[in-house]
Specification:
- β7 and β8 form a beta hairpin.
- By secondary structure, the chain is of the alpha/beta class.
- It is about 25% helix and about 20% strand.
- The chain has 2 domains: about 280 residues, Ribonuclease Z/Hydroxyacylglutathione hydrolase-like (Metallo-beta-lactamase, Chain A, 4-Layer Sandwich); about 35 residues, no CATH class.
- The strands form 2 sheets. Strands 6-5-4-3-2-1-14-15 form an 8-stranded mixed sheet. Strands 7-8-9-10-11-12-13 form a 7-stranded mixed sheet, covered by helices on one side.
- InterPro entries: Metallo-B-lactamas (IPR001279), RibonucZ/Hydroxyglut_hydro (IPR036866), RNase_Z/BN (IPR013471).
Length: about 325
């Protein structure tokens, strides 16, 4: 299964010319799942991967910079005659929030199912699951862990032949768990290979829940609203500094740290350098970048930056 994250919006609470409000698209096999939907998200998608037929949307919390793009997105899907059900999940109060803005998007021609989650809820998808967990922000807020199922171990064909198993259907029977001519699957199949894990922090102070869920993760996407020189302000507002995000990533031993929720008050390079001084495997994605997460045996996660037809600003070029 192909697995990647596309960064549609990486700004903090205020958009800039180059960074939209928070929105991250998970591409897992054929599934397309959006985490947060800040104002202008549909435009950000159109400019990059296209306005894809989303399967579901997950909100991390109810601050307006994380959901105001929903009414326009809903209406655009309706105007192009979508008929597939769209699933929307979020912390308690999500259904009430969307009901309060229902007049802005009106009656839809497709089913929209809104579900309030609780921390610890796990939703099963095809080959992976998504778990909601509490984080420490202002008000109720969630992070999410995307956890792939373990895969069967490698089949050792040479070993099977050496033990007298004939290539062909008998190989398939062994891989299906049967014993063939006295040869058991554990003799020719290695240990299960762990599934991939992606963790998104949402908006939060550094917290144990993120650290626990990110332990050994292939990719941690963590907010980094402040530089450490503004540590007090970060704590007051329920946010994290770049250094704190890097310290958490190092403690959790993640494969790659991606910093998001970038404030316009800082040069992006300053945030990245502060984090890399603590955790070298840190990237600071720009809008429309994506991180590919291959199977562990294929290599580490990699930040991919598409060609940009428009000239970048000096700050964004340096980032």
């Amino acid at each position: 299964m192909d697995l990647s994250l596309h960064f549609a919006g990486t700004a903090g609470s205020v958009p800039t010319a180059r960074r939209g409000l928070p929105a991250t698209l998970l591409r897992a096999g054929g599934d397309r799942i959006l985490f947060d939907c800040g104002e202008g998200t549909q435009r950000q998608l159109i400019r990059s991967v296209g306005l894809v037929e989303l399967d579901a949307i997950f909100l991390t919390h109810h601050h307006i910079d994380h959901w105001l793009g929903l009414p326009g997105l809903f209406k655009s899907f309706d105007l192009r005659d979508r008929d597939r059900e769209l699933l929307l999940y979020g912390p308690p109060g999500t259904a009430a929030l969307l009901q309060s803005v229902r007049p802005t998007y009106g009656r839809l021609g497709y089913p929209l199912t809104i579900t309030d989650l609780e921390a610890g809820d796990v939703l099963e998808w095809d080959g992976y699951e998504i778990e909601a967990f509490n984080v420490k922000h202002r008000g109720r807020a969630f992070g999410y862990a995307i956890v792939e199922e373990d895969r069967p171990g490698r089949f050792d064909a040479e070993r099977a032949v050496a033990l007298g198993v004939r290539p062909g259907p008998d190989f398939g029977r062994l891989q299906a768990g049967e014993t063939v001519d006295g040869v058991t699957p554990d003799q020719v199949i290695g240990e299960d290979r762990r599934g991939r894990r992606i963790v998104l922090s949402g908006d939060t102070r550094p917290c144990d829940a993120v650290r626990a869920h990110a332990a050994g993760a292939d990719l941690l996407v963590h907010e980094s609203t402040f530089l450490h020189e503004d540590l007090a302000r970060a704590g007051e507002t329920g946010h994290t500094t770049a250094r704190q995000a890097a310290e958490l990533a190092a403690e959790a031993d993640v494969g790659l740290l991606a910093l998001t929720h970038v404030s316009q008050r800082y040069h992006p390079r300053a945030l990245r350098e502060e984090a890399r001084a603590v955790f070298a495997r840190t990237e600071l994605p720009r809008d429309h970048d994506h991180v590919v997460v291959p199977f562990p045996e294929k290599g580490p996660p990699e930040l991919v930056r598409p060609a940009r037809p428009e000239p970048a600003t000096p700050q964004e070029t340096a980032a």
